[in-house]
């Protein structure tokens, strides 16, 4: 059995997290401003090992509308996320429950079967956007090397320069430290900006992050949401 085969217990994780159904179809960095692609795949909540592994190195579409005020940046897509072409899709990922609890969304979206056009529109109308540091899907974020993360940082700088959100939330302190060469960075607002846009580093919402809960992640989201002008309290 190869190391990859042994990793399939972690293959069904979402590396957040801002994360397509098939290789070559996702367009990371594309501004999704009109009618997003909706999969015709029958809804289901389970994949075989082979089905998940078929999405290695696939990509996931960014969800970014014309009025994006807060851009969430995941590390890279997990295989489940790639399979359904929706961010933070693995059941058990805390992104969507925390987003609702933070008040940034008035409902909970379930991305585990993908997001349809109406659900993506809800997300974008709320002034929210989603992308990833690294576009390609892996079973584990640890499979990414420093060069990939740093190349992703360069892509993110260019994307932020085009989108011009009011705030950026990077979901993962380890990835931030590596991608932007800030080995001593801590959670919260960073001294650095990206294209003159303030940056917060938030916890990775993956269920594998035992140090955080839905409530603690929601509290961090609430802080950056206020900075982006999306929450008034």
Features:
single chain, 233 residues, six-stranded mixed β-sheet
Entry summary:
This protein has 233 residues and is α/β, with parallel strands linked by helices. The chain is 32% helix and 13% strand.
Mean residue pLDDT: 85
Tally of strands = 6
Low-confidence stretches: 1-26, 29-42
N-to-C span: 53 Å
* Rg (C-alpha, Å): 16 Å
Strand percentage: 5-15%
Biggest sheet overview: 6 strands, mixed
Order of helices and strands: HHHEEHHHEHEHEEH
Figure out the total of helices: 9
Assign the structural class, choosing from mainly alpha, mainly beta, alpha/beta, alpha+beta, or little secondary structure.
alpha/beta
Which bin fits the share of residues in helices? 25-40%
Strand order of the largest sheet: 1-3-2-4-6-5
Mind explaining what this structure looks like?
With 233 residues, the chain is an alpha/beta fold. The chain is 32% helix and 13% strand. It contains nine helices and six strands; from the N terminus they run αααββαααβαβαββα. It has helices at 3-6, 8-11, 49-53, 79-84, 95-102, 117-125, 146-163, 173-179, 214-227; strands at residues 63-64, 70-74, 128-132, 167-171, 188-194, 197-202. It has a six-stranded mixed beta sheet. It is globular. The termini are far apart. The relative contact order is 0.19. The model is unreliable at 1-26 and 29-42 (pLDDT under 50).
